[in-house]
Specification:
The chain is an alpha+beta fold. The protein has one domain. Helices cover 21% and strands 12% of the residues. It is built from one helix and two strands, in the order E-E-H. A two-stranded antiparallel sheet has the order 1-2. The radius of gyration is 14 Å and the shape is globular.
Length: 67
């Protein structure tokens, strides 16, 4: 079992991955786009939203409530 902050990205025909991948929300880094090689797949909206939510959780982000 993976840690709760590691989000699975399941292989689908739509995303083009060859196998399930994982996004570790506790290991967010900033890198130059020049460091990327060939694309291995395309992240689907639902997976992106899950990753964003877990990053927010890891850094303790809580949106302000509107009054």
């Amino acid at each position: 079992m993976k840690a709760q902050w590691v989000v699975p990205i399941t292989r689908t025909e739509r995303n083009g991955l060859r196998e399930t991948s994982w996004a570790d929300a506790s290991q967010v880094k900033s890198v130059s786009g020049k460091r990327f090689g060939n694309r291995i797949g395309k992240l689907e909206r639902q997976a992106l939203e899950e990753i964003v939510e877990m990053i927010a959780h890891c850094v303790g982000y809580r949106p302000r409530r509107r009054t």
